[in-house]
Write a structure and sequence with these properties.
alpha/beta; Rossmann fold; 3 domains; two-stranded antiparallel ribbon; disordered C terminus
Length: about 500
């Protein structure tokens, strides 16, 4: 395992390539190979923690210094021992991992065969799940051998995404129970009634595409949904932003929270509230540093509330991940590795990638179409195989071309799947495709149109409009009744008439 460890610890003075070694690290994380020696286990755990925090691998020297400072001399000595070993890249590294895995399989196979022999002759106590049982006789030995060999013959890379239906009844029932019981498997939702009622939340192992032309609220929609999931649904999300920087995303989330109805009385007391319609802190004032003293006081309360409730677990967490382009390319492989590392520390329910066109392919390709197709295929694999096959919903933002926009404009702002055809993998791999439209009269009326262009396992939701509260960028649910009249039953089931749909929404 020395060569494996050496091949993920760069030493640039020796001519190591950090980017290629990061690819080695990603491949190692995707494999079934694990370190056995305690010193190597501890070194690898430190490398994982460092990479999660900084977005790149630590140098060999920094790892050694870390363990020396902590007087962990076995680990420091191990780094010193591997310093002059050869480094493998790409295919050579993959072959090296496969060779080490095969050696482990041979050792395990010998042990399994020995145990089967004991079972056949004298009997043996084995552990099955949380219980123990005695296996004895040739029939038990044969079944034991078949089961254990199946475990040994798992793919070296990737996760278990297949099986035999006849033997997977228990797994199917467990999945059903999770789906039935919201307490054990709470699905992230958008907070928009039409979408959530139709889809039943974002499901594990599925790829969702949010498609729109540039400036048509892809990022705004996804950040609204992430906020709703955290604050109203209590579910955590990791958001990979390739377009907006971290401080921008953070500011948006705090502005959303400044509109929360729980602060309405406080806003009224400070003179910030405007009638019955909930308002927030103007993001322009935050950027310019021109908040009044009342607004400053209010914003501090908002920040403290969001931070405390996230720390206490009352709200879900929102992890914003931004790559440093000077350190590494933002490939799906790198995205998944960072997400897997984060998940082990603080589990989350959903991944968002903003957006597909900015994700780098694994290998250089000439055309935009080929590039997008590869990225979308890899995102679907991530949805299926995340966390050793448990899966996770992945929401990918997708930019519709100018030609698609012009075509939809002639059709009242309505898209169809052909408008995604320049990356046909989006049509094939996505389980659900949602589009948004924000142009012309929709901008004038502070509205956004949502459509469902594809829904694999259930009927698509009908086209509907939602309200945008400016300048906050907050997308608010607007029941379909508001599109034809202003009458709606409030939370007490009493019929009221409102002049402004937003007033009604805040009363729900």
């Amino acid at each position: 395992m020395s060569d494996i460890l050496r091949s993920i610890l760069p030493d640039e003075p020796r001519g190591d390539d950090p980017k290629l070694m990061f690819q080695n690290y990603c491949a190692l994380k995707e494999s079934v190979l694990r370190f056995d020696l305690p010193a190597e286990v501890n070194v690898f755990e430190y490398v994982e923690d460092f990479t999660l925090k900084h977005g790149h691998l630590p140098s060999q020297q920094s790892v050694r210094e870390h363990f020396e400072e902590n007087q962990s001399f076995d680990e420091a000595d191990r780094i010193q021992q591997i310093a002059n070993r050869p480094v493998s890249y790409r295919g050579d590294f993959i072959s090296l991992v496969e060779r080490r895995v095969e050696e482990g399989r041979m050792t395990k196979l010998a042990s399994v065969m020995a145990d089967a022999k004991v079972i056949a002759r004298t009997g043996l106590e084995v552990k099955e799940g949380r219980t123990k049982k005695i296996l004895k006789g040739s029939r038990d030995a044969g079944n034991f051998l078949l089961n254990e060999i199946g475990k040994i013959n798992t793919p070296t890379f990737g996760s278990r995404i297949g099986g035999e239906i006849l033997s997977d009844g228990a797994d199917f029932w467990e999945e059903y129970e999770r789906s039935k019981n919201a307490d054990t498997d709470v699905r992230p939702q958008t907070g928009l009634m039409v979408i959530d009622n139709a889809l039943g939340g974002f499901k594990r192992k599925e790829l969702y595409i949010m498609a729109a032309f540039t400036g048509h609220l892809k990022s705004t929609s996804s950040l609204n949904w992430v906020y709703n999931q955290a604050v109203y649904g209590g579910t955590s999300t990791v958001y990979f932003s390739l377009e907006m920087h971290y401080t921008q995303c953070r500011r948006i989330i705090y502005v959303y929270h400044s509109m929360h109805p729980k602060f309405r009385d406080k806003r009224i007391a400070l003179g910030i509230q405007q009638g019955q319609t909930d308002v927030g802190i103007d993001p322009g004032k935050i950027k310019k540093g021109t908040l009044t003293e009342d607004e400053r006081s209010y914003m501090r309360d908002v920040i403290e509330d969001l931070d405390k409730n996230m720390k206490d677990g009352n709200y879900g967490a929102i992890h914003i991940e931004v790559a440093d382009p000077d350190v590494l390319d933002f490939t799906v492989e790198n995205i998944r590795t960072r997400a897997e590392l984060l998940y082990q520390k603080t589990p989350f329910k959903m991944m968002v990638v903003d957006h597909a066109l900015l994700v780098s392919p694994r290998k250089w390709v000439a055309s935009t179409t080929d590039r997008l197709n590869e990225v979308i295929r890899d995102l679907k694999k991530t949805a299926l195989g995340f966390n050793r096959g448990e899966g996770i919903p992945v929401l990918c933002l997708f930019q519709i071309s100018r030609e698609g926009f012009r075509s939809a404009d002639k059709n009242g702002g309505s898209y169809n799947l052909t408008h995604l055809s320049y990356a046909n993998e989006a049509e094939r791999s996505a389980d659900v495709v949602i589009s948004s439209w924000f142009y012309g009269e929709y901008v004038e009326n502070s509205m956004v149109k949502y459509q469902c262009l594809k829904s694999r396992d259930q009927a698509p939701f009908e086209e509907f409009d939602a309200q945008i509260a400016w300048p906050y960028g907050r997308i608010l649910d607007m029941p379909l009744q508001f599109q034809t009249n202003t009458t709606y039953k409030n939370k007490d089931k009493k019929t009221e008439v409102f002049d402004d749909p937003l007033d009604a929404l805040m009363d729900l």
